[in-house]
Fold this sequence. Notes:
The chain has helices at residues 19-29, 51-61, 77-83, 96-112, 132-140, 151-165; strands at 7-12, 34-40, 68-73, 88-93, 117-122. It is α/β, with parallel strands linked by helices.
Amino acid sequence: xxxxxxxxxxxxxxxxxxxxxxxxxxxxxxxxxxxxxxxxxxxxxxxxxxxxxxxxxxxxxxxxxxxxxxxxxxxxxxxxxxxxxxxxxxxxxxxxxxxxxxxxxxxxxxxxxxxxxxxxxxxxxxxxxxxxxxxxxxxxxxxxxxxxxxxxxxxxxxxxxxxxxxxxxxx
Length: 171
Ligand code: ADP
């Protein structure tokens, strides 16, 4: 009998993707046959990067991992999972503060779709402090973010901040 493909989804805002996210992508991609990194189109947050820009940065930094695909979605995660035949949701845990929200989300998703399970990877210690929002804050005040995000993303952040300082708008 042919073995069914194990497909995982790693959802998030990734605004922008950090070395902490990349670490979770590298580790979880080894646990599944295919990992879909899915950028949430969330209209309630005001993002630095558009969804298309976030997708394109993720594509670039994961291009050497063959079983990783990048996509975006809106609506319910369980619906996106079902549409992609995914049975595993991957999330990262940094600190106790992440826990309560993540537990609630995973239990809600499980009740909505019993075929989907969430697995949590604890952050690698060197990235435990790292979040997209602190990266944005450091970058906006002109700080060096090269310890926090892949070098490709460092350049994209510089371009974006320059464009914003020159009066550009972000959708
Ligand atoms: P969301 O808006 O869904 O929280 P994020 O892009 O902030 O999206 O995070 C996506 C996922 O990655 C979440 O599970 C989050 O806990 C995890 N994550 C974020 N930063 C790190 C990090 N430094 N180490 C490990 N996991 C992380």
